[in-house]
Amino acid sequence: MSTMYKLKNMSDSRILITGGMGFIGSTLAHKLLSLEANVTLYDAMLPWYGGNPANIREIKDKVRFIKGDTRNFKLLSKSVKDTDVILNLAAQVSHPISMSHPLLDIDINCVGNLNVLEACRRFNDDATVVYSGTRGQVGEALYLPVDEKHPDNPLDINGIDKLAAEKYHLLYNRVYGIPTTSVRVGNTYGPRHQMKHGHYGVLNYFIRKAMLGETIKVYGDGKQTRDYCYVDDVADALILAAQKKSAIGEVFLIGSGEMIKFIDMVRKVIEIVGKGSYKLAPFPPGRREINVRNYYTTNRKIKSILGWEPRTSLEDGLRKTIAFYREKLKEYI
């Protein structure tokens, strides 16, 4: 895959990444440093999620780290004051956890995001805010590929709360003039993702299972369709959204543009890893009802406005990801 976009140098730009020690956040940090930005990582380091010191080992002396929760308005406000761009990734990202602990999901995904926006409104209304949304806001696809005009009908608490948070961001742009953008991120995989469990980031978890020679459970018939986007491509889309004024007030869907059956993704992982196996299994109680059957998206809008397209095929991305974990698996399980 080849694309024409180019990220601009961000020399002296002050960037705050909420959820910055996690998978996508730390990938952004590495990229932004290469663009000469000043980077601050704000992360609660909640144990069930992806914050990991290993993610920034090579750059730890080049970034500032604040151990903070977006639910802590006082600390968050101090962090927001002296920043030009906020890449707002902090979230409760597990669909099953959102159903078993709905108030936790509301607390992090609704209250936490309102705190970010209120901190900007009160103390730094010039800061550009790029919100990381999710494909789960769409729900079951009525047509494919999904685009930005598709109606939203999320199937679980996480999708509802992430949709509410997106609407908060758009509202604060319309009413208060805060420059906000939402990028709805699809199934993302790649280096630096937690592999402790499969509550989210299932492709990476399947890589772990295959590398350990274990059996991967595929729920249902495995014929669900998805697209999977490599983390470097996702990071580029978020940075472009921060760099271009044409993104302000917009919602973008991003994905790989490569539709694949779930079971074929599993087979591809096993093939490239060189070991592991899979078996079909019934959905656990309550999971089928929140499982989106088919989803993949078109990148037409973000390509036309920001020039973004994915650069990494699933084959190449899997090979890069597996090579990373062959060296560092112990740090992520």
Structure, explained:
The chain has a domain at 14-191 and 228-257 and 296-311: Rossmann fold, CATH 3.40.50. Helices cover 38% and strands 17% of the residues. It has ten helices and 13 strands. Helix 1 packs across helix 7. The longest helix has 22 residues, at 102-123. It is globular, with a radius of gyration of 19 Å. The model has no long low-confidence stretch (mean pLDDT 96).
| Structural category | alpha/beta
Which strand-content bin applies to the residues? 15-25%
Give the averaged pLDDT, no decimals.
96
**Low-confidence region ranges:** none
CATH topology of one domain: Rossmann fold
CATH class term of one domain: Alpha Beta
- Give me the CATH superfamily of one domain: NAD(P)-binding Rossmann-like Domain
CATH architecture of one domain: 3-Layer(aba) Sandwich
Main-sheet strand order equals: 3-2-1-4-5-6-11
Question: Roughly how many Å apart are the termini?
Answer: 31 Å
Helices and strands, with pairings:
Layout: E1 14-18, H1 23-34, E2 38-43, E3 64-67, H2 73-81, E4 85-88, H3 95-100, H4 102-123, E5 128-134, H5 157-176, E6 180-185, E7 187-189, H6 202-211, E8 215-219, E9 225-226, E10 228-230, H7 231-243, E11 251-254, E12 260-261, H8 262-273, E13 277-281, H9 300-306, H10 314-328
Parallel strand pairs: 1-2, 1-4, 2-3, 4-5, 5-6, 6-11, 7-10, 8-13
Antiparallel strand pairs: 9-12
Compose a concise summary of this entry:
With 333 residues, the chain is α/β, with parallel strands linked by helices. It has a domain at 14-191 and 228-257 and 296-311: NAD(P)-binding Rossmann-like Domain (Rossmann fold, 3-Layer(aba) Sandwich).
